[in-house]
Amino acid sequence: MANTHVLLNSGLRMPIFGLGTFKLAGAMKIYDVIDAALKLGYRSIDTAQVYKNEEDIGKALKELMPKYKLERKDVFITSKLSPKNQGKGSAYESCVQSIAQLQLDYLDLFLIHWPGKQKLKPEDEQNRHFRMESWLDLEKLVKDGLVKNIGVSNYYVRHLDDMMTYATIPPAVLQVEYHPHLVQTDLFEWCQRHQVHLQAYRSIGIDELQTDPTLLQIAKTHSKTASQVLLKWAVQQGIGVIPKSSSHEHLEENFNIWNFTLSEEEIKSLSQLHKGVHYCWDPVKVA
User: Fold this and answer.
1) How many CB atoms lie within 10 A of CB 10?
2) pLDDT tens digits for 46-70?
3) Distance between CA 287 and CA 61 in Å, rounded?
4) How many CB atoms lie under 10 A from the CB of residue 264?
5) Which of 174, 220, 235, 265 is 20 to 30 A off residue 48, Cα-Cα?
6) Quick one: which of 58, 197, 82 has its CA closest to 134?
7) Nearest CA-CA partner of 151 in 95, 103, 99, 235
């Protein structure tokens, strides 16, 4: 089944469902996972400079896209700026390197991965200066035709509000941790007000979320797994997802969420599981 897409504020379309590649390593493993994902219908791949797998993903795509008769325009590729590469010139050049490692002519989306710069203390006010310089570099990448869309990851509302004082190109995407134990309503509402697509990572959460009785009852009602319901909970609200897996079975299971619909009450009951818990990184202290 064809991917559902979202329309970004750039006027370009992006699959709402993608393949995450965090901790996916090794050329053979990466080839195997991307082969299985493309066969299943995945058309969006999310990587990052800090994942150190861009080169292997690039090699796999170069071989596999012809196998599935896919052209460059058919697959949406995202990468992200490493915190060590924050700053004027560094952000631009590191993106050029990412594009080269991925064996592409352009990226569909490039995100600032973290609001702080590596080796600076979170509270250091220089973080703001570096991420501003990085954003202006990202805007230049768009103008130079190297990147189609730009955005940010792990930003709080105050980071976003500050960014809007210097951005001449608005962010197309905000990628953050988002699941029923961390319903970041303020960020979701900010994105809706500014026509920014919210994309979630860690959608499936951890075992504590996966075994919640409310979730399990909803899954049972629809004859689906807990993971499928969690992914559907996001997608049905227009929130993008990028679940990762190296298992063919889980890749297929994750992607098989298009043939059921959650009720408004089910979505609400899952959202009420909110605990304000970050299972990944919390940028709350970054100046």
Assistant:
1) 18
2) 999 999 999 999 999 999 999 999 9
3) 38
4) 8
5) 235
6) 82
7) 95
Q: For residue range 226-241, what is the model confidence (pLDDT) as tens digits?
A: 999 999 999 999 999 9
For 66-108, write each residue's pLDDT tens digit: 999 999 999 999 999 999 999 999 999 999 999 999 999 999 9
Model confidence at 26: pLDDT above 70: yes
CA 258 to chain centre: 20
Determine which one of 42, 51, 156, 201 is catalytic: 51
Angle between helix 54-67 and 90-101 (nearest 10):
40
Query: Using one digit for the tens of pLDDT, what is the confidence trace for 106-133?
Result: 999 999 999 988 888 888 889 999 999 9
The verdict on whether 51 is a catalytic residue reads: yes
Model-level pTM greater than 0.90? Answer: yes
Cα–Cα dist 209/57, whole Å:
31
Of the candidates 232, 225, 242, the one whose C-alpha atom is nearest the C-alpha of residue 270 is: 232
Cα 158 from Cα 162, distance rounded (Å): 6
Residues in the chain: 287
DSSP 185: H
* Largest separation between any pair of C-alpha atoms in the chain: 53
Instruction: Report CA-CA distances (Å) from 252 to 153, 205, 210, 228, 245.
Output: 27, 18, 18, 10, 10
**Predicted pLDDT at 277:** 87
Distance CA 104, CA 111 (A): 17
